Amino acid sequence: MAPDCSSIDRSSAMLLHQGGSREASKLIQAGGWYYLIYSRTGGGSRYVVAKRAKNITGPWSEEKQIMAPNLGSNQPNQGGIVQGPDEQWYFLTHHGKGDWEGRAVSLLPVTWKDEWPVIGSQGEDGLGYMVWNGNLPLKAIPEKKEWYCDDFSSERLEPHWEWNHYPDNEKWSLAERPGWLRMKAVTPLQKNNLKKVPNILTQRVYRTSSNEVTVKMDIHGMVNGQTAGLCHYAATYAWLGVTKTETGISSIMNENERITSQHFISGNDIWLRSDWGMEGICRFSYSTDGENYQHLGEPYPFTWGHYRGTRVGLFTFHKNGEEGFVDVDSFIYKRK
């Protein structure tokens, strides 16, 4: 690489590793060695293997299996070895079992034998095996912060938020109405498909015993033909929202473009709620006073999709243009 990082000399490249069914390579340095850690698949199983060298340019050893194969949801996927704040070593990984919460994260202890890492609990064969509990690397738990809640009082979006597509930054603002998130209507890239609506502001959901998301939304800026609301999506989707037409404003439960319930409402403020538990079945409800909620539509089962779990998000679109806006006052996520 050039000293100012402006370019890379491709002619200097040296191939360190190649092979089929290998992925997620991680390069670390520990104890005078360079280690290349990666996953290898085959025969329905996934292995964690490593190579090592005293110099980054080699010579590199033959690959060595450092973790026993695991099947199904026990398979560690694409992890990496890191050193914790307690100076101990850990394997940070996830499990791609294909359920609605997405890839669950695990942190496994790493020990060293003959200067090779062993992940998890070491077996008689010298390989590492899965463990499902252990000590956290932090000796003291820091103050818990409810990062998944937001009153939109900051000058920038908090890091737990993600856009579903690269956003049109002209279509949202935290400054036009301080203390509120203003979302301006966008045109869907494909009609009758929520997942083709730009500027859906999302975050991940959690698989805990009790989850409740409540959004307070000011809809005075909506125009005819505009829809806004609270959604969940992965392989499938559902949303609870409001639509404005010439005949008034209605609250709608929509599941994969099948409207299962619709009620007309009045007023400028609406509260939209989604709640679910360990089974991942969501119930939508709404309120016009923030206290009394009415269920709308049928229970919606979450799904897996696109290597991620179900998302929860905010959106607004106009079926024929880019007119109108909504203001979001708060997004409250309670979980146990």
Would you write up a description of this structure?
With 336 residues, the protein is mostly beta strands. It is built from no helices and 25 strands. The protein has strands spanning 22-30, 33-42, 45-53, 64-70, 77-83, 89-95, 104-113, 116-119, 121-122, 128-129, 162-163, 172-173, 181-184, 201-204, 211-218, 226-233, 237-245, 248-255, 258-265, 269-276, 281-287, 294-295, 300-301, 311-318, 325-335. The strands form 5 sheets. Strands 12, 13, 15, 20, 21, 22, 23 and 25 form an 8-stranded antiparallel beta sheet that branches. It has a 7-stranded antiparallel beta sheet with strand order 11-14-24-16-17-18-19, with no helix packed on it. A hairpin with a 2-residue loop joins strand 7 and strand 8. The radius of gyration is 25 Å and the shape is elongated. The mean pLDDT is 91.
Helix content: under 10%
The shape, in one word, is elongated
**What Rg, in angstroms, do the CA atoms define?**
25 Å
Beta-strand content estimate = over 45%
Sheet of most strands: 8 strands, antiparallel
> Helix and strand string, N-terminal first?
EEEEEEEEEEEEEEEEEEEEEEEEE
Euclidean distance between termini CA atoms = 49 Å
Q: How many distinct beta strands?
A: 25
Task: Please mark out the parts with pLDDT under 50 across 5 or more consecutive residues, or reply none.
Answer: none
Structural class call reads mainly beta
Mean pLDDT: 91
How many helix segments?
0
